[in-house]
Each structure stands twice: as structure tokens, then as C-alpha cells.
Design brief:
Number of helices: 11
Strand order of the largest sheet: 10-9-8-11-12
Radius of gyration: 20 Å
Helix content: 25-40%
CATH class of the largest domain: Alpha Beta
Distance between the termini: 38 Å
Largest sheet: 5 strands, antiparallel
Bound molecules: adenosine-5'-diphosphate, magnesium ion
Strand content: 15-25%
Number of domains: 3
CATH superfamily of the largest domain: ATP-grasp fold, B domain
CATH topology of the largest domain: D-amino Acid Aminotransferase, Chain A, domain 1
Number of strands: 12
Shape: globular
């Protein structure tokens, strides 16, 4: 394997992050001795460039709709290219928070209490009755989400009844069906997972922010968020969270690499809030930090993601955990 095409950019709201991911990945691959072509699927003629380059592997460095939701994966598979990360089914499932929470909940994973609402239901019931149902079923505080967005786009946190209508309208400006779920007060952690059929959870990573919300700004502005590895939780709770992440990864059918985000309540009850099939891969992103904690450099992480795309499994040596 010599030639790797890195797909980066794209046209989703997360394209700027994808450019950073793709650039960092491309540099690491070049340092590892590969011949790399950086290809942006938002540019005309990208498919011809891909064909001409004739890569041994395609590294999908795209985030958000169009890049992380199975569409590009389906295109690549139809054309006979091998690619990194999850396939069509897991990508599509994880990208839609409503479907993902249903599947994870059905499989016995702890997810925040939730309900869904579509436009037709809202017009049938009217705002007043809808709001009453939501407050009865979920209660305050709650989170309203547009299910297929990323980077906290289309999400509102509702602490007062009078903010509920605006939050519903905001999420409906993105999609036809929205997710309402219980707001979990507590610690935000993320667990990175590597592997195919035998997924290995990396150490827990606690996210702290200066604003209290891990949104687009606090994620990407230096100094506005911090990563603490392992999370400041008792060892048995961290072990439990890592096991939940591996299970969520397996249940959704994820491959190669991914990240499972959770909120941990003050009583140490964890809740899975979402799974990401193409997490950010800049040098300062979450998954590279977690990998470093088990002695895997950024270059090695990129190398392993490529090797897993060709069917290798991640060695057990990385299952060192963070219990000690
Ligand atoms: N149920 C919840 N309780 C508390 N905070 C939440 C909840 N859901 C989301 N959040 C907060 O909002 C952020 C973004 O939500 P998330 O579901 O991860 O969507 P995104 O795809 O935008 O990352 C999370 O990182 C977390 O800080
Ligand atoms: Mg998230």
C-alpha cells in the first residue's frame, strides 16, 4: 500500500474542521512514507482526480452531513475503493441522533430520557398541548436537537418553560423531525474507540469548558476547553464507561475508529449522548489525545486507522485502560 487519497473539506457546516483534520492526517501519512493526494469533494472534478490517482486506500477526513453519514462511503464502495472508518450503515445510523438513541436504548445502553416530534404532530397538537406533553414526558431542564447536525448546530438548552417554543422552532429550521431529551447535569466525558470486530476503548477523557457548554466556539477556541485524562471519576465508573463505549460502538456497527460522548451525573450514572464515526483528527482533537495516553502518537494513530481499514485488528496492548 503506497498511495492514499485523503478526502477533506466537503460542503457541510463542519468543512473548516474537516480541512484541519485532512491536513493533519495528510501530513502524518506523508511522514509515514505514503504518497498522498488531498481531494476536496466540494470541488468540481474531484471524482476524476480520485480515479486518475487510483489510490490503494481512501482516508475519509470529512465531518458532518455528506461526509460522515454514509453517502460518500456508499459512493466509494460502489466504485470499488477501500476506505477508512465505518461503512454506510453505521455512518447513517450514528449520524441521526434519533435513530441512534432508539437503537442504543433498545440494546440496553443508558440514554437520557427522550422523545421525538415531527412537524405534522406539532401542527396537529398545536404548541400549547405539545409543550405540555414535552414537559410531562421529559421535564426541565431539557435539550432540543436537530438530529443530523454536528458541532452543536441546531441544539438548544431549555431551562425555562418560556424558552421551549423558540428552541423547538430553531431545531425545526434544520430538519422535519426533532429530538427532545433530558438535560443531564454533570460531567462531560468522551471515550475514543479503535477496532473492527474487537473494539478497544481508550482511556476516558473529561472535557471541561469555561462556558459550561461544549459548543463550536469552546471546542475550537484555544483555552476555552480542557482535556483531562483519565476523567476525574472513580476507577470502577471509568471502567464502566469504557465498557459502555465499546458496546455502543459494537451495537451501531462502527469500524476502524470512533468516539462515544457521554454525560455522567453527580451520582456517577453515565448516559450516552451520541457516537461520532469520524471524530476530529487535528493534533489537538480528543481522539489523538486519548491515543497519546496509551503511548500511540498521532502518526501511529493515523497508521492504525489505515491498517484497520484493510482488515487488521487493533492490538490488545492498547487496552491498557485508565484504571490505575
Ligand atoms: N442530554 C444532554 N445533557 C447535557 N448536555 C448535553 C446533552 N446533550 C448534549 N449536551 C451538550 O451539548 C453538546 C453537543 O451535543 P451532541 O449531542 O454531542 O451534538 P453534536 O453533534 O453537536 O456534538 C455536548 O457536547 C454536550 O456538552
Ligand atoms: Mg458531540
Amino acid at each position: 500500500m503506497k498511495k492514499i487519497a485523503v478526502l477533506l473539506g466537503g460542503s457541510s457546516p463542519e468543512k473548516d474542521i474537516s480541512l484541519k483534520t485532512g491536513t493533519a492526517v495528510s501530513q502524518a501519512l506523508e511522514e509515514n512514507g505514503y504518497v498522498v493526494a488531498r481531494i476536496n469533494p466540494a470541488e468540481p472534478g474531484w471524482d476524476k482526480r480520485l480515479e486518475t490517482f487510483c489510490p490503494d486506500l481512501v482516508f475519509v477526513g470529512l465531518h458532518g452531513p455528506g461526509g460522515e453519514d454514509g453517502t460518500i462511503q456508499g459512493y466509494l464502495q460502489t466504485k470499488g475503493y477501500r476506505h477508512t472508518g465505518s461503512g454506510v450503515q453505521a455512518s447513517a445510523l450514528a449520524m441521526n441522533k434519533i435513530l441512534a438513541q432508539r437503537v442504543l436504548g433498545q440494546a440496553g445502553l443508558p440514554v437520557p430520557r427522550f422523545m421525538t416530534l415531527d412537524r405534522e404532530e406539532l401542527s396537529r397538537w398545536g404548541y400549547e398541548q405539545t409543550e405540555e406533553t414535552i414537559l410531562n414526558e421529559i421535564g426541565l431542564p431539557l435539550v432540543v436537537k436537530a438530529p443530523s447536525q454536528g458541532s452543536t448546530i441546531g441544539i438548544s438548552f431549555v431551562h425555562n418553560k418560556q424558552d421551549l417554543r423558540g428552541a423547538i422552532d430553531h431545531s425545526f429550521s434544520f430538519e422535519e423531525e426533532i429530538l427532545l431529551e433530558r438535560f443531564i447535569e454533570g460531567m462531560e466525558i468522551t471515550v475514543s474507540v479503535l477496532g473492527n470486530r474487537r473494539p478497544v476503548a481508550l482511556p476516558t477523557l473529561e472535557i471541561t469548558t469555561t462556558t459550561g457548554v461544549y459548543d463550536y466556539e469552546s471546542k475550537y477556541t484555544p483555552g476555552m476547553s480542557d482535556h483531562i485524562i483519565p476523567a476525574r471519576l472513580p476507577a470502577d465508573v471509568r471502567r464502566h464507561c469504557r465498557a459502555l463505549a465499546e458496546k455502543a460502538y459494537r451495537v451501531l456497527g462502527m469500524r476502524g475508529f470512533g468516539r462515544v460522548d457521554m454525560m455522567v451525573g453527580p451520582d456517577h450514572t453515565p448516559y450516552v449522548i451520541e457516537a461520532n464515526t469520524i471524530p476530529g483528527m487535528t493534533e489537538t482533537s480528543l481522539i489523538p489525545d486519548a491515543a497519546r495516553a496509551v503511548g500511540m502518537s498521532f502518526g501511529e494513530l493515523v497508521e492504525w486507522i489505515c491498517r484497520m481499514a484493510l482488515g487488521e485488528e487493533i492490538p490488545e496492548q492498547f487496552r491498557t485502560g485508565d484504571e490505575d
